Amino acid sequence: MVDRASGVLCHPTSFPGAFGIGEIGESAFRFVDWLATAGQRLWQVLPLNPPGPGNSPYASPSAFAASPMLVSLAWLAGDGWLDSAALQHPPSFPDHVVDFGAVEAWKTPLLRRAWATFDANASGDQRASFEQFRGEESGWLADYALFMAIKESRNGEGWLVWPEELRNRKAAALSRARKDLAFEIGFHEFVQHQVRRQWAELRRYANERDIRIIGDMPIFVAHDSADVWANQHLFRLDEGGRPEVVAGVPPDAFTDQGQLWGNPHYRWSAHAKTGYRWWIDRIRATLQMVDLVRIDHFRGFAAAWTVPVDAQSAAGGWWERGPGAAVFEAMQRELGALPFIVEDLGIITPDVAALREELGLPGMKVLQFAFGGDPNNAYLPHTYSSDCVVYPATHDNQTTIGWFTSIPLHERERVQRYLGRDGGDISWDFIRLALASVAEKAIIPLQDVMRLDDSARMNVPGLGIGNWGWRFLQHQLHPGLGAGLGDLTSIYGRRPAPGGPVGYDPFDYTAPDTAHTLREMPKR
After folding, report:
1. pTM, entire model
2. How far apart are CA 325 and CA 357, in angstroms?
3. What is the gyration radius of the CA atoms in the chain, in angstroms?
4. Which of 343, 344, 440, 448 is catalytic?
5. For an engineered disulfide with 486, which of 38, 181, 211, 361 has Cβ 3.0 to 4.6 Å away?
């Protein structure tokens, strides 16, 4: 684990660029450079998996695969798999938001073209590298590629309505599908190879600059996923493959009806019989891409909210016990020390806190939750112990400016009194508060560093559309902001940081950007 340090939360899809979505390209490496000059040692992302319904990375068709939309097209062109002329005139994508449908419609044919070129022209060494990847990752990759190929051949149908022999994975049917769809299966394997190669280079670049990447792992997986289709015995499904019950959370501060996620629950007894093999493999695959892992909805390992499959809301659910420490002990026996951060927010009962403490894992503190009136509120910094990670806000919250301008006057006054400031620069007031706290780690949403309002919000829990699309422009990643963040980081002992660019006031966020030479892409 990393000792006292700080970092920034930003999903790679938010990076700028001409192709409608952030990629593992030049903007990603520039972001790492900016983090380094800002004295940051951590970069937190959302799940890197392919997005699912509503473009959510938390509802992916695979808990193991990476999103094809992260692949850098320019990198593919540099490797010779695409003609660079094909990238010269992209559609006019919006700058500040990802139009996921338009991006996928334009980018997928280019990825297919790259696969066709590779399949026809790759050298012996290149094919050997690809085959090595296929072999090493076959435990999940074969099922994922077959699942996606069948799904696409059936116009996107969910596996629940596939023909019975495919739905139930009859050996003869799977064999025919692998033969008939061999080229499409190869395409999905090729894309996973490319995104893993590119991401590994970006991660190496970050690690060389003493920056560790924090990944994000949802506890549940989507029903319409390769994971459930290939491992039906590990989930609570009926004989037809339909979930018996589904996951969610009860009514809380976000929603008065709770959140009905719809994910199938695990059949924990079946996992236990395998020694929790699927979980061990999942964590191993995740740690191939990131250095630390935030476990989303950790409380589900103690007890999970269980909802009837036909319920219209989550309000009528109930708690059911999870596996507790057993699954983590199995992971640790095989993988060693677990570099986890656990999301212990929401309705936290004593059993959840006891499990986290038993495992010795740091939990989360969110400053926006701190000002409800009780001076002993567990989210107020003066109540912290060091074994936690503090955030002004998470991806599920308003930006700090949006939050501060929307809370009642009496709560705003409570914030002002606690800070000893008027809140005129509330984003950076909260950044200072987080960095000054005793929390071992502090993670700042990039939107707060940039002093943005709720137009830059990443997600509204319970809202099925309109989320996950925020992007920034390159000029917004201002050197002055990096210098200011680096100054506070150094002041509060999270890392001695070099001074900012000469001539910049760290807190003058209106200063114009300056011309600078772009760093070349790494040699491959």
Report:
1. 0.93
2. 11
3. 23
4. 343
5. 38
The rounded distance, in Å, linking the Cα atoms of 247 and 236 is: 11
Tokens of 341: 């951060």
> Among 397, 327, 321, which residue's Cα sits nearest to residue 365?
397
- CA–CA distance, 105 with 118 (Å, rounded to integer): 21
User: What does the block give as tokens for 22?
Assistant: 């952030």
Q: 268, 296, 174, 287: which is closest to 226 by C-alpha?
A: 174
- The number of CA neighbours under 13 Å toward the Cβ of 519 is 14
β-pairing, 303-308 vs 245-249, is antiparallel
Longest dimension (CA), the chain: 71
Question: Nearest Cα to 64, choosing from 182, 130, 145, 175?
Answer: 145
Taking residue 4's Cβ as centre, other Cβ atoms within 10 Å add up to 15
Strand order of the β-sheet with 292-295 is 340-342, 292-295, 212-217, 42-44, 5-9, 441-445, 388-391, 363-366
Whether 296 is catalytic:
yes
Exposure string (b/e) for 15-27, b if CB count within 10 Å is 16 or more?
A: bbbbbbbbbbbbb
Of these residues, 26, 224, 396, 429, which one is catalytic? 396
CA distance 70 to 93: 16
Q: Which residues contact 73 (CB under 8 A, 6 or more apart)?
A: 19, 23, 25, 82, 87, 107, 110
Contact 206, 43 (CB under 8 A): yes
Whether the CB-CB separation of 24 and 13 falls below 8 Å is answered with: no
Question: Which residues on adjacent β-strands are paired with residue 342?
Answer: 295
- pLDDT tens per residue, range 153-174: 999 999 999 999 999 999 999 9
Q: Tell me if residue 136 is catalytic.
A: no
Residue 463 pLDDT class (50, 70, 90 cuts):
confident
Of 224, 296, 429, 448, the catalytic one is 296
What's the distance, Cα to Cα, between the start and end of the chain in Å?
A: 29
Q: Give the separation between CA 266 and CA 247, rounded to whole angstroms.
A: 10
- Residues of the chain above pLDDT 70, percent: 94
Sign, CA dihedral 137-145-197-120, equals positive
Residues 482-521: tens digit of each pLDDT? 999 999 999 999 985 444 443 334 444 343 333 333 333 3
